[in-house]
Specification:
389 residues, alpha/beta, seven-stranded mixed sheet, 12 helices, 33% helix, binds MU-OXO-diiron
Length: 389
């Protein structure tokens, strides 16, 4: 099966509804899509390959879409195996196929494949163009979105942007996704989040282009239910680390589901009573990457964690380490620690927060002992007041 983007640009990519983890770490409750686009012209051109797990289905889609025509060119925009995994097999299927890609991708091909592909490669760089007949491709360097070799490609006759990983989302491709932003946000912050400045400069480069469609390597062809401006604006906000919504991400890690959890839920109730939008993540049960998404989505965050071995309960350490890697910044944060004999969680959480850029630690830092007491609640109210004044 393939999907028409326009009369001459077809998505021959594959949905994998059965895969449960992406990159062996990100939950996929609704599978994953690997897109690959075929441009039918005098020269038949393919944009990227797909993960090696779905090669067979991809080839079947390709056969249906080409109607028996040869594929002359493949543009490799990104070498991560979820896209380049079927490239070597593609060169067996089409022995004369030429590869257009960046210099850095050429080096990666040597690392990933035993087959020597060098005699079929043309290296492209920023601003190079390639005519396919009535379609013309222009290449743009897009380093670190999400690897350094990445290029994006603009087809000017139909105004289509092939955006590599950018604008992608978790989940299989649906005809009418009702909430692109939810899984696109989780994808962006967890996968590309560290590279906000690079994403900003690519968005700036693309600003002058007139666009009819954005064709990402994951998720639906855009636009779906919104104008392209909607998606571009979301990306501008995310890449600049600006909060998308006023609200509080409450992230907690509780060893016995007692005091720490009670404090987190009490804070949630207090904030909700004040009409504040909240997102709550229980790090011992929920998807940690949803918590990362919420941390970046909202302008404020409250961390509640148990002490552990004179340190911090490891699920919270893992969470804060992800925020550190992903350049968490520009937010207001409050912390609550729990400790039965020698509370140590706040000290460790503070050390992370001090390392974040433009993050303010809100007073008071609250310590509870084993369980939440009525006497602790005024201190939690103080946090709520400081977070909402
Ligand atoms: Fe979809 Fe960075 O690979």
């Amino acid at each position: 099966m393939y999907e028409k983007v326009t009369e001459t640009i077809l998505n021959v990519g594959v949905n994998d509804p059965d895969i449960v983890l992406f990159e062996n770490q990100y939950d996929l409750p609704e599978g994953m899509a690997y897109n690959s686009y075929l441009i039918l012209d005098d020269t038949v051109c393919l944009m990227d390959s797909v993960d090696a797990d779905v090669t067979e289905e991809w080839f079947a889609n390709l056969d249906a879409a080409t109607g028996g025509r040869n594929v002359d060119i493949v543009v490799i925009q990104h070498m991560e195996p979820d896209h380049s995994g079927s490239l070597a097999l593609l060169t067996e299927k089409y022995p004369d196929i030429k590869i257009y890609t960046s210099q850095m991708a050429v080096n990666m091909m040597k690392q990933f494949f035993d087959t020597d592909l060098s005699d079929r490669i043309t290296v492209v760089k920023e601003g190079d163009t390639l005519s396919l007949g009535s379609h013309t491709l222009t290449f743009y360097a897009a380093p670190m979105i999400h690897w350094p070799e990445v290029i994006m490609t603009y087809e000017s006759s139909e105004k289509v942007l092939f955006s590599a990983d950018a604008f992608g989302k978790f989940g299989v491709r649906e005809a009418e996704p009702d909430d692109w932003a939810c899984e696109a946000r989780r994808y962006f912050f967890n996968i590309v989040g560290k590279y906000g400045p690079q994403a900003q400069s690519v968005l700036k480069k693309l600003e002058g282009l007139e666009l009819s469609h954005i064709c990402s390597l994951h998720g639906p062809v855009l636009p779906q239910n919104e104008s392209l401006e909607f998606y571009l604006n979301k990306y501008k906000t995310w890449a600049a680390y600006e909060p998308e919504d006023a609200g509080v991400a409450i992230i907690y890690a509780s060893i016995h589901d007692q005091g720490t959890k009670q404090a987190a839920l009490a804070l949630a109730e207090m904030l909700e009573k004040k009409g504040v939008k909240i997102g709550v993540t229980n790090l011992t049960e929920d998807d940690i990457h949803e918590g990362v998404e919420d941390a970046f989505r909202y302008d404020r965050m409250i961390l509640c964690a148990s002490s552990y071995d004179a340190d911090l309960f490891p699920p919270m350490t893992k969470f804060l380490n992800i925020l550190k890697i992903k350049a968490y910044q520009k937010r207001k944060v409050a912390i609550v620690e729990n400790g039965t004999w020698a509370p140590s969680a706040a000290r460790v959480m503070k050390s992370y927060i001090e390392g974040f850029k433009d993050v303010t630690l809100v007073d008071p830092v609250v310590t509870i002992r084993s369980t939440l007491k009525e006497a602790d609640k005024p201190k939690l109210e103080e946090i709520v007041a400081a977070m909402t004044d």
